[in-house]
Specification:
Layout (H helix, E strand, L loop, with lengths): L1 H31 L6 H18 L4 H24 L7 H23 L14 E4 L2 E4 H23 L1 H11 L1 H6 L4 H23 L9 H16 L4 H21 L5 H15 L14
Helix pairs in contact: 1-5, 1-6, 1-8, 1-9, 1-10, 2-3, 2-4, 2-8, 2-9, 3-8, 5-6, 6-8, 9-10, 9-11, 10-11
């Protein structure tokens, strides 16, 4: 039971990272009806920005964190203007291909600027964690879980109790009608990309002290988060959160009880099972089309 509790805590911590990135997938999908396959690269770029500011330049951790998030906001604007906006009137396929191309570009630019050597980023706290009975609560995992809870609560409040949040929801539901009602649709989509980039950046910065900061970390996180969105129900915010947490727990228990080298395979096994038996996901609804 002690091992089970420890694994459960670790799985929730990893799953929270997947949930944050999955939220970025869902937000952009609901706003543009397009899957942003560069969402994982947002996490990778933010982690490297933290290495540059906190490690190479020696800035205070909090200052490096804020500047890195500001950089991600700028990247979100550039991404929207350079990748989505020119193709906004095209079908979804060219936009998806452009997001894949943008992810490859970001990964190779980072590789050219920083090299292939993985980097180490220290955590926010000097203490390793606290011992609570038989379970050791790692400080970085605690920070990840707490941050995810705060961001989810903020997102619920923002979308349900602010005028700007309601405008964003209206834009995601029907862009043409929102435009007729005087809502600046272009600005709302821009804000969605900025917020999504910041979410991905926060996830990358939080998980960086646990993993090595490397070029490959973005694609790994993105694939798991994408699987989480499908498991939870594509386009559903609650589904993204539950899917991410479930995936982290399954992956952690699978690594402990089955095989560590194949731990990444458990996420995709769950993805295949859901696609075969419940393609609409946990919270999704089956949609029928007339022939």
């Amino acid at each position: 039971m002690d091992l089970v509790l420890q694994l459960l805590f670790t799985g929730i911590g990893i799953g929270a990272v997947y949930a944050l990135v999955a939220l970025g997938f869902v937000l952009i999908f609901r706003a543009t009806n397009v899957v942003n396959f560069a969402q994982g690269e947002f996490s990778m770029v933010a982690a490297f920005l933290m290495v540059v500011f906190a490690v190479d330049l020696g800035w205070p951790y909090w200052a490096a964190f804020l500047v890195s998030l500001a950089g991600m906001a700028i990247l979100g604007v550039i991404f929207n203007l350079g990748v989505y906006y020119p193709l906004r009137h095209r079908t979804y396929l060219p936009v998806i291909i452009s997001t894949i191309g943008a992810s490859i570009l970001m990964a190779n630019l980072t590789l050219a600027l920083y090299g292939p050597q993985p980097q180490v980023l220290q955590g926010w706290f000097e203490t390793q964690g606290i011992q609570l009975g038989p379970v050791f609560l790692d400080s970085q995992y605690l920070l990840i879980i707490a941050t995810t809870c705060v961001l989810v609560a903020f997102q619920y409040w923002f979308f349900e109790h602010t005028m700007l949040g309601k405008k964003l929801q209206a834009t995601s539901q029907d862009k043409e009608m929102a435009s007729l009602l005087g809502i600046p649709v272009v600005g709302m989509i821009m804000l969605t990309f900025v917020y999504s980039a910041i979410l991905g950046g926060i996830a990358g910065i939080l998980v960086a002290p646990i993993l090595f900061v490397s070029i490959q970390m973005g694609s790994t996180i993105a694939l798991k988060a994408f699987a989480a969105t499908i498991i939870g129900g594509f386009g559903d915010v609650a589904g993204a959160i539950i899917g991410g947490l479930a995936l982290g727990i399954i992956e952690t228990f699978g690594a402990a009880y089955v095989s560590v080298p194949y731990k990444d395979g458990f996420a995709f096994l769950m993805l295949v099972l859901f696609l075969a038996f419940r393609p609409q996901g946990i919270f999704g609804e089956r949609v029928a089309e007339k022939a």
